[in-house]
Amino acid sequence: MNRKLSKQHFEKANKVMPGGVNSPVRAFRSVNLDPVFIASAKGSKIRDVDGNEYIDYVGSWGPLILGHAHEEVVQALKDTAARGTSFGAPTEIEVLLAEKIIEMVPSVDMVRLVNSGTEATMSAVRLARGVTGRDKIVKFEGCYHGHGDSFLIKAGSGALTLGEPSSPGVPKGSAQDTLTGEFNNLGSVEKLFDESGKEIAAVIVEPVAGNMGVIPPRPGFLEGLRKLCSQYGSVLIFDEVMTGFRVHPGGAQALYNIAPDLTTMGKVIGGGLPVGAYGGKREIMKTVAPSGPVYQAGTLSGNPLAVTAGLKTLEIISRPGFFDELNRKANDFFGKSIALIEENELPLSLNHVNSMGCLFFKPGRIETYSDATESDTDMFSQYFASLLKAGVYIAPSQFEALFISAAHSEEDLAVTLDKMREVLLSLSIAS
Ligand code: KE4
Description:
Layout: H1 4-16, E1 38-42, E2 45-48, E3 53-56, H2 71-81, H3 92-104, E4 110-114, H4 117-132, E5 136-140, H5 157-161, H6 172-176, E6 178-181, H7 186-196, E7 200-205, H8 221-232, E8 235-239, H9 252-255, E9 262-265, E10 276-280, H10 282-285, H11 304-317, H12 322-343, E11 349-353, E12 356-360, H13 369-373, H14 377-389, E13 392-393, E14 402-403, H15 410-426
Parallel strand pairs: 3-13, 5-6, 5-7, 7-8, 8-9
Antiparallel strand pairs: 1-2, 2-3, 4-10, 9-10, 11-12, 12-14
Helix pairs in contact: 2-11, 3-11, 7-8, 12-15
The chain binds ligand KE4.
């Protein structure tokens, strides 16, 4: 496969940007390859600068639930852009997006739009500290909530992929106020509350972990967090940046029927443009400036162009039958992938929740961070490289998710399964 132009672009990029990228996980470091530079995309396909085409399962790390360059989204963007891209003043369309989010997410009475998932989680934690007057937060090893100081302690996603779960540069004060529990181990959280309950402002959790590969919550885990937070007066924050509008139109909180106090959102609500959001109970949200004292602001928050893509995306996924069809396709694909593993007795396992999933290079159940980190990342790298050569583009890390979009056809999924079978049976694990 010719990747000459990608190589040339990467050489230039490395001279002017750290690691040649604007987000670490894109650099393909953990799979020991140079990244491909994307020229264009449409539907389920992406095309690199050398003209190679791939079936795309990264989907910009989750936002593109409709697939790339959806006609209605592109048209709405063109119409909006022609009327101006940003005013730094209130517009009707940001109210419409806020109303749509509130309509779709059960626990959200009020919402603030920001520009990224990181901004959403940083703001939600500041708000929780502001309303409780407490400093400590609980997060979970392997969960990723963006690159805010409080979260770069035993973080997942790129931090885990690059082997730096706890980043240099985070002040000791931040680190000591971040307590870490074990995802799916309620006892580890009960212990933290026994020790520091009255100092804990919030528990922040990905209700389905998506940044150490995909790990669903064990029955009772989320319910237990809800109970502990209510008991100690701590704020329960569901970080639904990845799961929101993905695993269910109302997010994981609707799927598992748990009401957090605050929800952070991103990805799908921007439809591929930069939008994040945090929202929740009115009595908490009204504490945010200018209606309350907890300060948070943003020049481009609620930007009409970004909000247009997000609102159009939410409108389309709200149409009757959208999730039925997406989940049918996804569950069929992942079911066949599991059958492939079982029929060939491959030392692999696969977790998924509707259209987000992960193939782990480790046999047995993957239910915790330590399970996930025992995966054979070298074997994953070989798998990744072979799939890429075969025209299938998955996340360049064992600790990420694979996303199926509405644009993935039955043929795409059948071809992908064939390539997966071919590659997996060619790897040494198949012996
Ligand atoms: P952003 O700041 O990257 O928009 O969102 C941070 C974030 C917060 N919470 C969750 C649950 C997330 O998954 C993310 C970002 N996800 C990663 C991929 N796993 C973004 C990819 C990247 O870092 O380039």
